């Protein structure tokens, strides 16, 4: 797409902050707050109005935050504001199933006690995460928030990066960050191509309350038309991420509440006793979309703008927070050494750090979804044997647990809970 309204950069243009962050969803705010700890200032621009972003009904998702992500939130001073509303994830049970038939005898069971690091992660509702981010940004003198403003054009040069808002106002920074989600305009305007495809699936998302306690156990049932995740929330509540084919999901979403629960019950089972809806219902179309490059001149992509994956393993936001921690680490180190934080060399360090990890995540989530979202008897036998094998070998089990907790690979400092 052309960049018709773009404002060319000149030295006389006032520098508003070190970083211009397009997208104030989740990864943009996390980056601004982590960068502030490293002494870098940010302007965070989001197209949505503040009221919409603070509306508790705005987004029904809850996130399975890996232990490493919780450590990052703690290192940037946010965890105290979240801890009371976060549900520790103590065990994960993965089962192959068919609606109405109950689970197959093959399963995987991961218990946090096997790695002695604490819970594998925490379930946090989107609304709490969003409030904590907004409040912390508001209180931080290094962060300027611009709500209800859409970026329509951008320009970068060795002098810095400039964005143009729909109002015509221009803002100049040293580095432009695209955290504007799966359909990133920042990437598109920089002519960064993407690779990906739709899954023909939609995630039905809601919170439910149930009679019996969940004991901190997360369940993943692999059903022929897509996975069903039952994720423990505080109290006797769980978050449901129920992936179905697009057509079926549309039909289910249109049902009244009681019929919706009737449709859910055969897959859900009765192990938590009677169930009720505990909030609104939402849908999310599912696709894979990876940016072919995470950087361009004076520009870096983070979060879903860099990589939008299937929620099958609950890893999208965790991967975005790893981007945040890695990018802030390379930029603050560069700043301390007297390097230019937006130089190609510095941004390349970020890309090198994140590319391999992201490709692995994309391949893993894609393969899992293809392997499990069908009823082919040969594949079913193969995956059941695979699950039985992983479950019976303690070292394999521990590898999976460390992976789910986000403790594998070359972790940036913030993800180990250390300050920058
Ligand atoms: C059903 C489902 C369940 C999930 N569960 C989990 C989970 O358990 N664990 C996990 O780790 N991840 C999970 N994820 C993934 C997670 O939701 C995403 O990775 C995360 O929300 C991405 O955040 P983001 O900030 O990168 O992008 P977004 O949240 O998409 O934010 C982008 C922001 O950019 C703004 N914007 C866009 N264009 C412009 C513009 N031109 N100007 C100004 N602003 C703009 C938008 O208004 C928006 O606020 C799940 C995803 C789905 C769909």
Describe the structure.
The chain is of the alpha+beta class and 420 residues long. It has a single domain, classed as 3-Layer(bba) Sandwich (FAD/NAD(P)-binding domain), CATH 3.50.50.60. The protein is built from eleven helices and 20 strands. Strands 5, 6, 12, 13, 14, 15, 16, 17 and 20 form a nine-stranded mixed sheet that branches. Strands 1, 2, 8, 9, 10, 11, 18 and 19 form an eight-stranded mixed sheet that branches. Strand 14 (226-233) and strand 15 (237-245) form a beta hairpin. The two termini are 38 Å apart. Bound molecules: flavin-adenine dinucleotide. The site of flavin-adenine dinucleotide (FAD) has 33 residues, from helix 1, strand 3, strand 12 and helix 8.
Structure described in brief:
With 420 residues, this protein is of the alpha+beta class. It contains eleven helices and 20 strands. Flavin-adenine dinucleotide binds at residues 22-28, 45-48, 61, 63-64, 150-151, 179-181, 185, 203, 205, 241, 284, 303-304, 311, 314-318, 320.
The oligomeric status of these chains comes to single chain
Q: Which ligands appear in the coordinates?
A: flavin-adenine dinucleotide
Strand content: 25-35%
- Envelope shape: globular
Q: The biggest beta sheet, please?
A: 9 strands, mixed
Unreliable stretches (pLDDT < 50, length at least 5) are none
Mean pLDDT: 91
Fourth CATH level, the homologous superfamily: FAD/NAD(P)-binding domain
Number of helix segments? 11
Q: Tally the beta strands.
A: 20
> What is the name of the CATH class?
Alpha Beta
Classify the helix fraction into a percent range: 25-40%
Tell me the distance between the termini. Answer: 38 Å
- Number of domain modules: 1
| CATH architecture label name | 3-Layer(bba) Sandwich
> Would you give the CATH topology?
FAD/NAD(P)-binding domain
Radius of gyration: 22 Å
Strand-pairing-aware structural class: alpha+beta
């Amino acid at each position: 797409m052309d960049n018709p309204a773009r404002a060319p950069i000149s030295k006389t243009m006032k520098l508003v902050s070190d970083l211009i962050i397009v997208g104030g969803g989740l990864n943009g705010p996390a980056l601004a707050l982590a960068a502030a700890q490293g002494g870098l200032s940010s302007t965070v621009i989001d197209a949505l109005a503040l009221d919409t972003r603070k509306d508790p009904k705005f987004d029904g998702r809850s996130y399975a935050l890996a232990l490493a992500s919780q450590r990052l939130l703690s290192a940037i001073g946010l965890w105290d504001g979240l801890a009371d509303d976060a549900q520790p994830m103590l065990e994960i049970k993965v089962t192959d199933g068919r609606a109405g038939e109950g689970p197959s005898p093959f399963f995987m069971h991961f218990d946090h006690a096997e790695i002695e690091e604490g819970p594998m992660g925490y379930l946090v509702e989107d609304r709490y995460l969003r409030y904590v981010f907004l409040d912390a940004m508001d209180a931080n003198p290094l962060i300027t928030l611009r709500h209800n403003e859409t970026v329509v054009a951008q320009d970068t040069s060795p002098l810095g990066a400039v964005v143009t808002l729909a109002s015509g106002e221009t803002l100049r920074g040293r580095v432009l960050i695209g955290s504007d989600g799966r359909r990133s305009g920042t990437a598109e305007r920089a002519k960064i191509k993407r690779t990906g495809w739709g899954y023909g699936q939609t995630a039905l998302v809601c919170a439910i309350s149930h009679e019996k306690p969940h004991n901190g156990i997360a369940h993943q049932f692999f059903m022929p038309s897509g996975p069903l995740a039952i994720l423990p929330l505080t109290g006797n509540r769980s978050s449901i991420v129920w992936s179905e084919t697009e057509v079926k999901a549309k039909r289910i979403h249109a049902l009244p509440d009681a019929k919706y629960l009737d449709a859910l019950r055969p897959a859900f089972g009765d192990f938590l006793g009677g169930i009720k809806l505990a909030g609104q219902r939402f849908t999310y179309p599912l696709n894979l979309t990876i940016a072919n490059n995470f950087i361009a001149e004076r520009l870096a992509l983070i979060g879903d703008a860099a990589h939008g994956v299937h929620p099958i393993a609950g890893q999208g936001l965790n991967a975005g927070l790893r981007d945040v921690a890695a990018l802030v680490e390379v930029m603050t180190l560069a700043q301390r050494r007297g390097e230019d934080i937006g130089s190609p060399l510095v941004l390349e360090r970020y890309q090198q750090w994140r590319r391999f990890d992201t490709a692995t995540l994309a391949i893993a989530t894609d393969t899992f979804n293809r392997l499990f979202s069908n009823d082919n008897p040969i594949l079913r036998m193969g995956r059941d044997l695979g699950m039985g094998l992983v479950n019976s070998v303690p070292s394999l089990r521990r590898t999976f647990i460390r992976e789910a907790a986000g403790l594998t690979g070359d972790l940036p400092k913030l993800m180990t809970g250390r300050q920058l």
